[in-house]
Amino acid sequence: MRALVIDDSRAMRRIVGSILEGFGYETRPAGHGREALDVLEEGWVPDLACIDWNMPVMDGLQFVSAVRANPAWRQVTLMMVTTESEHGQIVRALAAGAHEYVIKPFTADAIGDKLALLGLLPHGVPA
Amino acid sequence: MTAATALSPTGFDWVCQLVRRESAIVLAPGKEYLVEARLLPVARSLGLSGVAELVDRVRARPDAALSRRIVEALTTNETSWFRDGDPFTALTSTVLPALQAARRPGEALRIWSAACSSGQEAYTVAMLLADALPNASGRVQITATDLSRDMVARTRAGRFSQLEVNRGLPASMLVRHFCRVGTEWEVAPQLRAMVTASELNLAAPLPRLGPFDVVYLRNVLIYFDPATKRDVLQRVRRLMRPDGWLFLGAAETTLGVDDTWERVACGRGSAYRPTRGA
Amino acid sequence: MSAPIATLLDDETVNAVAAEVWSALVGEDEVLVPGDGPVADGRSAWVGVEGPWSGLVVLTCSASATDDLTRAVLQLAPAEELADEDVDDVLRELANILGGNVKSLLPGPSTLGLPQTGTPPQPGTDVRPVGATWRGHPLTITVQGATEAPVHHPTTEVTP
Fold it and tell me: Could you report the predicted ipTM of this complex, rounded to two decimals?
């Protein structure tokens, strides 16, 4: 299983990346939406993308819309991981095509629970 | 904290063994402060001077209910919403169609969350049925009970922290069924109206409740000795409809404890149903 | 122009938000004890909020705490070296998360800027400073209204 971790904070990329690696994922980091699209365009299409909202160059919502506009990337599950926590913001992200939403701050267990919901826990890894 | 009330090394070891046995969670050496911090409210709620006295009391006189509170205080930070998702997916995929076929249209469906903790299980059921049944709020009655007065009050309030709603609650359900109130998220009034919460000790004679179509009794039996397990299961069965469904925790079973149940495949997991004539 | 911040947020709410951030990011058993004096030689990170209420959410930690804080958030082993940029990055992300959660409690709709580090703009009169202590080190979370000179939010440098 592959996951793309998109966040402008190096610390957050590291935290989310190591949680996912703990669940058996191979991960790649990207510092903003444009950089993440470059990774997809180069052919590295992940099962999961964890996406921050507020980032320079291209924000998370623009990235979600771009991925959903390309049928070749339909297999990518899009999970927002962001401090944006108003009811209306979550609605906006889901309407743009995000599949799931984790509010920062979160624990490793919260990521595990969401992966279990999405059927994206590699087999044999305890939730 | 004075020396007289500090938890002794043997007391700490006893707590570690209890938690490990009941939850498979290992408390590392050096976590004495965590045990103190989490158990002090439990000790105070019983009018005890401190954690040492609490531990001495349970060691001297084993008490399943109190042991459970100790383990919960040390292990459950946030309960997941779709914790071990199978009993919930089975509710809508298997149990609900069976009940709809067997009941008159509009007949009440009664569901019991028998160790409701802060209410996630009861509201998970409420959300699933609200989404699956057009007239759920008029038809579904969910009884949520817990030993702890605090937990009953939390269930009744239906308010959850950000960290709690992050735990396994699908985002689509969060936005559909909750609204923000300050730093917390509150369950919609029509779901809260489906849930009645009250204090109840499963190890004592039960009040008149039900009869229930579905009972969630998960991660409770593990705390009781075999004789009490059997008593609890028999008391629960008397409050169920003959064609009702019982869901236990993933590590629990009626097999070898009380033979008046049959285990049936249900969704991807299993459920228990009263045997005919029992 | 919205109501002053003091009428929109109380200390207890800011402390509750900070406590959740600390327990999730710094460590499950990390306790933030509310209340303490201001931080003398602090290092700051902040994030802007723009909407009916506009201003900044500033996190200031005493210099003695920032290394430990960064190590705790990144779960670094004692032997692992700590880059200065990691310290700034962790402070920025903490400010970002605090800011996003504070924003959700204010009248909306509002937008959140990108976090930055350095010397934060001086607060005006519309300010709510909330003090706390972590592992004995003082820190403050200051929610301050935009001062008359509009606060400029340059784009934070991207550090791949």
Answer: 0.94
